[in-house]
Design brief:
Shape: globular
CATH topology of the largest domain: D-amino Acid Aminotransferase, Chain A, domain 1
Structural class: alpha+beta
Number of helices: 13
Helix content: 25-40%
Number of strands: 23
Largest sheet: 6 strands, antiparallel
Number of domains: 4
Oligomer: single chain
Distance between the termini: 41 Å
Length: 420
């Protein structure tokens, strides 16, 4: 397992639950993953080091969590060494590594998405903005750890974002080219799809909460919590998403000559006129993974293995009827400056159905569990109702002791209000 976050911790636990009883290794892992699997201090972006580690440990199967190693060609290198990999090669990872590449693919294959234009100079971008209504979306082309998107509410805010990205270096090389996109309105949903060539399996639906504050206020983050299933995606709507977005997306990727074997994450806006693609990611979502995997009743390892080997045709998936809800415990100040090193005291016992997935944690010299990232923990609860899952998750969050912990108090609130 390659990676060091909450997504990877959830994947490690799900893979270990396989009847095959695999020995799971992780690089580099974190303090929580180290309690469940052997961890090796090889960075997730060290392609050569990870390949050497897999060969030295005689690994039989590699699952790649984050997007950066995929975009650097880890999948290509491992496959060249004869190792089965779950995660696309670099050509498939471009779907996340370049928002412009993805938008061009969507438009070429007439997959529903917002209109957009692309720029690498401030002047033409400002001229374009002058003709467009606000709000409008400004996106850095390259990878920006989930933070390279500005939903500008005013023209001044949009112009500032353009200048900061192209000339100000706000996102480094990732922002030297930008995408200016029409703003879509509606609710978002995350559709995770296990893909192998033209074959695929859709995983349980979920809905993420991107903004830092309650009521969807404040700046975008990597995700502050999520729940599954997202009931706004009715069975009928999921069928439409499959017909109009998932099937065409998988076929479009294959038509471009990409042999995609991994997770295709499709961010979708449910607009009044129908579902529309916001983005593709080339890996499992975080924190979506922390609620999707606990609801899968089948052997995840077997499913990913079939996908990696091109044997996914005919695969089906059984889903548990329970609801899952994940609250992300972050460091105060995230997504901007935040403290590191604050000790964390976890509850001695967790209620039934509750799991804590570590994201930004480490051990200090004294062996104490400490904060080591912006998003620190993902507290996931599984229960017969969404309200019960929320109650269990928040009770566990409240029991975590840490001086600088912060979390939203309204994860799942939209769906809970709909159910009243």
């Amino acid at each position: 397992m390659v990676g060091a976050g909450g997504r990877e911790h959830a994947l490690v636990r799900a893979l270990q639950a396989s009847p095959a009883r695999p020995r799971v290794l992780c690089a580099p892992g974190n303090a929580g993953i180290a309690a469940d699997a052997a961890c090796f201090p090889v960075a997730a972006d060290d392609v050569a080091g990870l390949t050497a580690l897999a060969q030295r440990e005689r690994v039989e199967f590699v699952v790649v969590g984050p997007e950066v190693p995929l975009s650097l060609g880890l999948g290509d290198r491992l496959r060249a060494a004869g190792l089965p990999v779950y995660g696309p090669n670099a050509d498939g990872a471009r779907l996340e590594a370049s928002k412009i590449f993805t938008k061009q693919l969507l438009l070429k294959h007439r997959i529903p998405t917002a209109g957009a234009a692309f720029f690498d100079a401030v002047g033409p971008a400002l001229e374009y903005l002058a003709q467009k209504p606000v709000p409008i979306v400004i996106k850095a082309d390259g990878l920006a750890a989930g933070k390279g998107v500005v939903v500008a509410q005013t023209r001044a805010e949009a112009e500032a974002a353009v200048r900061e990205m192209i000339d100000g270096g706000r996102f480094g090389a990732s922002g030297k080219q930008i995408l200016v996109e029409d703003c879509l309105f509606g609710e978002e949903t995350s559709i995770l799809v296990v893909v192998s060539g033209r074959d695929y399996v859709i995983l349980p639906t979920s809905q993420d909460h991107k903004r830092i504050g309650d009521g969807d206020t404040g700046p975008n983050t990597g995700g502050m919590g999520t729940y599954s299933p997202a009931e706004v995606v009715t069975p009928e709507l999921l069928g439409r998403i499959d017909r109009e977005i998932v099937r065409p997306s998988v076929d479009a990727i294959a038509a471009e000559g990409i042999d995609y074997r991994g997770t295709l994450f499709i961010g979708i806006m449910l607009t009044p006129s129908g579902p529309s693609v916001i983005e593709y990611n080339a890996r499992f979502g975080d924190p979506e993974t922390q609620v999707v995997l606990p609801r899968i009743a089948d052997d995840l390892l077997a499913l990913l293995w079939r996908a990696a080997r091109g044997e996914l045709a005919g695969a089906t998936l059984r889903t548990k009827p329970d609801y899952a809800l994940c609250v992300v415990v972050a460091a105060k100040g995230y997504p901007d400056a935040f403290p590191k090193g604050d000790p964390i005291e976890l509850p001695a016992e967790l209620p039934a159905g509750v799991a804590i997935f570590h994201a930004g944690t480490a051990r200090n010299a004294a062996g104490e569990l400490v904060m080591n990232g912006g998003r620190v923990l993902g507290v996931t609860a599984l229960a017969p109702t969404l309200q019960a899952a929320a109650d269990r998750a928040y009770a566990a969050c409240d029991a975590i002791r840490c001086r600088s912990k912060y979390y939203r108090r309204d994860i799942g609130a939209k769906q809970l209000r709909r159910g009243q």
